[in-house]
Write a structure and sequence with these properties.
The protein is globular, with a radius of gyration of 27 Å. α1 runs antiparallel to α3, α3 crosses α8 and α10 packs across α12. Helix content is 58%, strand content 0%. It is an all-alpha fold.
């Protein structure tokens, strides 16, 4: 018998407010903000390089997995397409314009970004395409294998780069699918078994050990996922073996994300769970706050260990402020703009035909007697009798 197509289970009504996911959202968003706060200083201080490499999997890869958890593999209908436009496409355009205006106000040239969104907004473009592709991907017999093969092969195609976030969209697709699978209940034993807890601790420790010992040897092109392999010819295996490096990086990211999720508290945490529900707002707003600080040279002034720690703590504080309920309410017209009037009215669903009335016992008996009678049609010679 042919294997049935996978059909995701309907999410629980309070799934979006599960404190486990909200706690993880805030951790990931805060780590991203901290990196962008100190990013211009990483080349000057080894300690920041350790942070960059040691926490890499808990930033963008974790954010990708979380996006997959809350995505649907069902066929795209009119309502979901409109939601994609309202919650992803239009906010991406709005914040791209705000970024360009801010650059202009700081003395730079105004640039209208269309095919290549600035700074962190590539994620929204990729998210749009991930959600368009997911209903197709889940129909495959081996989705994870196919998406991984594509992510490795795309590095050999020069035309897949930063435009339309093409490279990152395809490279991170396996992690996005992994997140969707976790949302459907995959690896439940890993998250509940006692034996997985020490394994997860060891995984987190290994990540920071790699950052401590080899952060200078890890190329930024291995982690950015935005360039073809021709831009990363310094891999120890050469251009022919560059796919092995990417496979190792993706596999390591997936494993470390599972480790962090295993260690993340599932209970509601004071402040953290509440702020984590605004992870999307944190991600969108923080570049607009950090850009003037960076361009005015305020961040570059940090040159002592205490000042660097203060910058990192300031990044966490900024994430907390931007994720607070009052900031989310204030910027909701930007993060979820009211554009309902742009859409045509949805067509009313076609009425379902009424079910046929059940046949009574007398009617069924009469039907059987009629079936036993020979056919009286003139051309019945070519027919097989209904009853012998």
């Amino acid at each position: 018998m042919e294997k049935p197509l996978p059909r995701p289970a309907a999410p629980a009504p309070d799934k979006a407010r599960d404190p486990w996911w909200d706690n993880t959202r805030f951790v990931s968003a805060a780590l991203i903000v901290v990196l962008h706060t100190i990013g211009s200083l990483i080349s000057r201080y080894d300690g920041l390089g350790i942070y960059h490499v040691g926490t890499w999997a808990f930033r963008v890869p974790l954010f990708v997995v979380l996006a997959g958890v809350f995505s649907s593999g069902d066929p795209l209908g009119p309502r979901r397409l409109r939601t994609l436009l309202q919650s992803i496409v239009v906010p991406a355009l709005i914040f791209s314009l705000l970024y360009s205006l801010e650059v202009k106000a700081l003395g730079g040239a105004f640039t209208l970004h269309i095919t290549q969104l600035p700074w962190t907004l590539w994620f929204l473009m990729s998210l749009f395409f991930w959600r368009l592709l997911l209903p197709l991907v889940v129909q495959l017999r081996h989705p994870l294998l196919v998406t991984t093969a594509v992510s490795l092969a795309v590095g050999y195609v020069d035309t897949f780069g930063m435009e339309f976030s093409a490279s990152r969209t395809l490279v991170y697709m396996p992690l996005f699918y992994l997140g969707w699978s976790l949302g459907q209940g995959m690896l439940k034993e890993w998250f509940e078994a006692r034996w997985s807890l020490p394994v997860a601790v060891a995984g987190i420790a290994a990540s920071f050990t790699v950052g401590l010992l080899w952060h200078e040897d890890v190329s930024g092109t291995w982690l950015s996922m935005r360039h073809p392999y021709t831009a990363a010819t310094d891999t120890p295996l050469g251009l022919e073996g560059a796919w092995v490096v990417r496979l190792a990086v993706l596999a390591g990211a997936a494993g470390l994300v599972l480790c962090l999720l295993r260690l993340m508290p599932r209970r509601r945490l004071p402040f953290v769970s509440l702020l984590g529900s605004g992870g999307f707002t944190i991600y969108l707003l923080h570049p607009l706050v950090l850009l003037p600080l960076r361009e005015k040279g305020l961040i570059a002034r940090a040159d002592t260990r205490l000042e660097l720690l203060g910058l990192m703590a300031g990044g966490v504080l900024l994430a907390a402020v931007l994720g607070s309920p009052w900031v989310r309410r204030l910027v909701q017209p930007l993060t979820r703009p009211p554009i309902g009037r742009l859409f045509a009215p949805l067509a009313a669903s076609a009425p379902q035909p009424a079910p046929a009335p059940a046949l009574s016992d007398d009617t069924m008996a009469l039907s059987k007697r009629l079936e036993k009678r020979p056919s009286s049609h003139g051309d019945s010679g070519d027919r097989q009798p209904t009853y012998r």
